[in-house]
Amino acid sequence: MAELWDVAVIGGGAAGLLAASRAAERGRRTLLLEKNARPGVKILMSGGTRCNITHDTDNRGIVQGFGPPGKFLHSALAALSVRQTIELFESEGVATKVEETGKIFPVSDKAADVLAALLRRLQRGGATLALSEPVLELRRSEAGLSLTTPGRTLLARRVVLTTGGQSYPGSGTTGDGYRFARALGHTIVPPRPALAPLTVNLPWVAELRGITIPDVTLRVLDGNQVLANRRGSLLFAHFGLSGPVALDVSRVVSGAERPEALTLEIDLLPGMKEAELDEHLRREALASGKKLLVGILPEALPRRLGEMLLTQAKLPLDRKAAGLTKGERTLLVQSMKRLRLPVKGTLGFQRAEVTAGGVALAEVDSRTMQSKLVPELYLAGEVLDLDGPIGGYNFQAAFSTGWLAGESV
């Protein structure tokens, strides 16, 4: 006869660990099933192995970060707020810090400390953790839901699905949850990469690899229509663009029917108006005519980038600043304020930090995380059609929805 559990949680990531901990703390006989040999693989990889736990904002700020779908998170954040999340980790000995960007990290800069805290809580709560045990099938039965793994069949009165999305498939997130949810009648919004680096169809961009510009504005254009607009740090790479602003607009690129029809427009100097920049060039050309033209460009631009901008404006690199014409100034201003790059696409799920798409939110009760179609099923974390910007928003959503699911089962 199959073992019967009060609660089975499928997937030992951020949402699953908190869901299982909370359910067990509430006296539920709880089993957490993880396909990998260790839990929390994506936690360990995140934030450059530092783990950006959450963002320095209030609950409303998290909701707004997700755009219109963010309202789905109201109840989850009421159950576990940003402040309570920080307190949860600090109570487990993980001191936190706020960086200039608003990102909140452990003071130790070690994602392993975040995972260790979650595992301590799981163990203390009394949940059972089963590693290297993937769920192969999930179906309804008379006792609740039946789970088949390679070595056994289990029964659970309630199941929490926290399998993640499809980003970083090497960490085990290969879309299993979509298959389970679809088999039980749920609609799956087609998954696509989000928070992924952008690929660009211009060879000279690769020559700038390694250059970081701390403050730019990046827009995604479809003709004259602005599809996305973000300000922050940008990194040039051999394949195209990375850094927070590139990652933040990538969901728009991956969601386009023809990404290659889109254009990226970069304002390399968002703190200066075009007229100010033109006047800067005019004044510097008069005052420092013997300097090379690249030498009078604003200091915020690295020299290699400045030289590339001159080349794109068809101005020779050995050109002196003296005699800079109004037409040449206009070309330079445009290249700095409206640098346009043709899009190729993104680096896909292999390099995406999160997944856009997933189980349709309309089919999940946001007050409890319970499926509206299968009363025994609860869903939390990235398996849902919910993705936010870079900066800890997605972890907060995973922690809060996981906690609420654990509170509800």
Could you explain how this protein is built, in words?
The chain has 409 residues and is an alpha+beta fold. The protein folds into three domains: 3-193 and 352-408, 3-Layer(bba) Sandwich (FAD/NAD(P)-binding domain), CATH 3.50.50; 198-267, Translation factors (Elongation Factor Tu (Ef-tu), domain 3); 274-339, Helicase, Ruva Protein, domain 3, CATH 1.10.8. The chain is built from 13 helices and 20 strands. The protein has helices spanning 14-25, 41-49, 59-65, 74-79, 82-91, 111-125, 176-183, 203-206, 244-255, 274-287, 303-312, 326-337, 393-408, and strands at residues 3-10, 30-33, 54-55, 96-98, 103-106, 128-130, 137-141, 144-148, 153-161, 188-194, 198-200, 212-222, 225-236, 240-242, 263-267, 339-346, 354-359, 364-365, 370-371, 377-379. The strands form five sheets. Strands 1, 2, 6, 7, 8, 9 and 20 form a seven-stranded mixed beta sheet that branches. A six-stranded antiparallel beta barrel has the order 11-14-13-12-15-16. A hairpin with a 3-residue loop joins strand 13 (225-236) and strand 14 (240-242). The longest helix is centred in the C-terminal third of the chain and has 16 residues, at 393-408. The relative contact order is 0.19. The model has no long low-confidence stretch (mean pLDDT 95).
Give the topology, please.
Elements: E1 3-10, H1 14-25, E2 30-33, H2 41-49, E3 54-55, H3 59-65, H4 74-79, H5 82-91, E4 96-98, E5 103-106, H6 111-125, E6 128-130, E7 137-141, E8 144-148, E9 153-161, H7 176-183, E10 188-194, E11 198-200, H8 203-206, E12 212-222, E13 225-236, E14 240-242, H9 244-255, E15 263-267, H10 274-287, H11 303-312, H12 326-337, E16 339-346, E17 354-359, E18 364-365, E19 370-371, E20 377-379, H13 393-408
Parallel strand pairs: 1-2, 1-9, 2-6, 9-20
Antiparallel strand pairs: 3-5, 4-5, 7-8, 8-9, 10-17, 11-14, 11-16, 12-13, 12-15, 13-14, 15-16, 18-19
Helix pairs in contact: 1-6, 1-13, 2-6, 10-12
